[in-house]
# Entry
Amino acid sequence: MYVESQVATTAPRLPGKLPLTAILLWLGALAASAAPWLPELDLLSVVSAFWSYDGSDYSSVLAHFSWAPRVSIALLIGCGLGLAGAVTQQVLGNPLASPTTLGVEAGGQFGVTLATLFAPALLAFSQDLVAVAGGLLAIGMVVALTWRLGFSPVTVILAGLVITFFMGALNMAFLLIKGEWLGNLFIWGAGSLVQNSWQPFMDLWPRVLILGAALVLLMRPLQLLQLGQASASSLGARVGLLRMLALFLVVLMSATVVSRVGVVAFVGLAAPVLARLLGARTLQERLFWSTLLGGGLLMLADTLAHWASSWGDGSLVPTGTTTALIGGPIILLALQGFKNTHHMPGQESNPGAFLPKRRSVLVTGAVLLCLLLATFFVSMGWSPGLQDWSWTPIADWGEAWVWRGPRLLAAILAGVCLGLAGSLIQRMTGNVMASPELLGISGGAALVMVLIVLTGTEIGRAGQLGAATLGAAAALGLLILLARRHRFAGNQLLLGGLALYVFMDSGLRLVMASGGTVAAKLLNWMYGATWLISETEALSLLGLTLVICLGLFVAIRPLTLLALGDTSASSLGLPVTRARLGLLVLAAILTAAATVVIGPLSFVGLIAPHLARVLGQQTVGRQMIVSALAGGLLLALADYLSRIVIFPSQLPAGLLAALVGGIYFLWGLSRHGRA
# Structure
């Protein structure tokens, strides 16, 4: 009895700020949502709109069939996603895991896209079925890639993020090819809770309730996972089966929501993180308060989206945008206490496991240069026409240059910049799976472009290029603030890039929801449409690239010393923190220069340094030379193929590069898993 009483007195108490925050969040969101109706209806009529209405009063009818079901479905979906996120974090032992960061929501949208194009009868039969299939595909890929790496937090997040990129690129490819079929689908996919009846809520609540009850029933087995896999197995828990069952229920919950209202991103991440930050310690507390906070957060985000739509020009602001904007700062808060750095891909203790035979940089560089020139020659001369394929004589290249030359030159230069930036980042972080795209620097440039276009600001192409560069610099500044306390270590840089991606994702969803020709042009740029490049821009990029390349000679020694470790580099006279900062600035400039040409979602910065390593270039200087040539060759090929694959239509070259790069990244993760 004495022992029991002693345990009871030492048990952690629930901080009062947690229930107080939940109550204030719910009451504040409800009050903000109801405020626009109070000038037209009294408070009692607003409250009674949830179950009745006055047929002679238009405002009462509108509140009952539009506002009340919208509030109800926001609370229902927010609670479901908050619970699903808390379970996901418990299953993987990862404070940054959620249906969004694991690619489940992107997978659900991908399933709906495929069904719309190729099997519309499945949608008529069940929207949930195709969304669940896509979600299972996404999370299955994450699990398969990270299982042997122990579900380490950084690896899981990177795998989920790249799968989200990859499936987003596939969705965008389908949109650009079949825009007349999928335009409305992507407006829906941006995440909107607008309702015109109670029927969607009545269809959804039994599913959410049943899945939520099933997740709660797993509470006791899930508690064993806190002891570790070995201890849980020794106590009789079938850890693998338990994880699969829990993740399957999470996919069902998330995909069911996606199939109804589109992607309302990061509620499943923000709610559990907020509950943890406010003091929820036990699993029961985290599940309960994550559920309540999820409902309040989504209701608040939806209210902000409604207000933004009312204050603007009447165009729809999707709820998916505001949830992403809320989720971003919460991720930043979570990163401050994130200390797990083990199992980082590319940081194994035996880097010598893969050392190709060294080759002469002169021979390798000459071969790549010849291939690049051959690609340039073929791209300028051999192309399809109205009747058939034809060869453009060299004497006529002056006329052909206007249409083919600037875009090809810009693509090559963007590839050179990304190849150099990728080499810098991989060497600096000691992580061969890093790339400029995953640091969010290109996302900062993209977000500025989104804001310029959506606000209707006319600053010309030169102004857009300058603003995009400032956006990349701002992203770099935020990244420096995030990683400074960790001396710019690789893990914190990459997870900071994830937070920046959240904001870019909100801009993308806003663009997709706005529709129109301006949005179409912007999306083409964001996925690397090189046909927008003028000769002046291409030549300006050439001058900038030459200047930066000359400055890269000073980076060779710091990169060489950093590979020895911080302690050894410092003992050899290298100021480690300042060196990392300078290298990061160089990488940001290179990335911004490439982003304004090829868009933010290319993976050339990942592939080019790998190709240099495979071709036998191990030292810093040699790898950078070959990476630059390989990057230029890759994007030259991507630009040429983008012109001919679906002629007379065109695909953005960056989109093709992103598809190939996503596959390469996932293959690289699987290699590390087998190792």
In short: The longest strand covers residues 382-384. DSSP finds 29 helices and two strands in the chain. The CA atoms of residues 30 and 299 lie 8 Å apart.
